[in-house]
Amino acid sequence: MTTYNKSTHTEPICKTTDETSVPVYERIKRYILAHIHDGRWRTGAMIPSENELAETFGVSRMTVNRAVKELAIEGVLERKQGAGTFVIQKQFSQTFVTVHSIAEDIERMGKRYHAKQIFGGAQAYNTLPAEAQKLFTPQQTPYRVDVVHFGDDVPLQYERRWVDLNLVPKFAEQDFNIVSTSNYLIAQTPLVRGLYTIEALACPDDIASCLAMPAGAPALCLRRHTYSGELVVTLVQMWHNGANFSFTGTLE
């Protein structure tokens, strides 16, 4: 018997992170990331000084310094002595990374792999996120699955995928606790081309809780859509905790 939630409306069953349990410096990081993500602080913009942030949060400058320092190490901010702290350009397109299955990547890390499907359900076109509405047509039948991938029982990737049931009609009948979504699609339909990007983004609350991360913490998000003929057959968002997962590729 599968244990995931199969519905047209209900969201994945994952506890959200309690705001009061998040350290203050993490909340400051989350605040900074949110302002960058929503465009209020754009690339090259100077963020408020540590003294200003300390006053905003009612904490010591040392606490703010830790948050800013960590974001600088993570490549989100650049600290210029005597000038201030600035937002670094983080969005980029990847055209040279070979993407393996998550199971292979985790096993290559020497970890024991397993997956847990936590959601499966049809989704009406008008309830799709904006990105999905641009790729699918109203005539298609998108079905969403959410799967968490583990290495040694640690959640390493949250996969949120939409698949057109018109093109892959038996997709909704599969148990993705034991079947790979990618391998199943490859076996069922010709995938002729695709496009993917990797971005550093603030992790949504529901996904962050499943990855054991503070809500809004920086995460690596790989987004990929793939075509079968002239139609998009699948769109997937793969979220990773940057603290314990990385992408590696080769230039040839």
UniProtKB/TrEMBL annotation:
PROSITE patterns: HTH_GNTR. Signal peptide: none annotated. InterPro entries: Bact_HTH_transcr_reg, Chorismate_lyase_/UTRA_dom_sf, Tscrpt_reg_HTH_GntR, UTRA, WH-like_DNA-bd_sf, WH_DNA-bd_sf. Residues 22-90 form the HTH gntR-type domain. One of its GO terms (molecular function) is DNA binding. SUPFAM superfamilies: Chorismate lyase-like, Winged helix' DNA-binding domain. Gene3D superfamilies: Chorismate lyase-like, Winged helix-like DNA-binding domain superfamily/Winged helix DNA-binding domain. This is HTH-type transcriptional repressor yvoA. It comes from Moraxella caviae. The gene is yvoA.
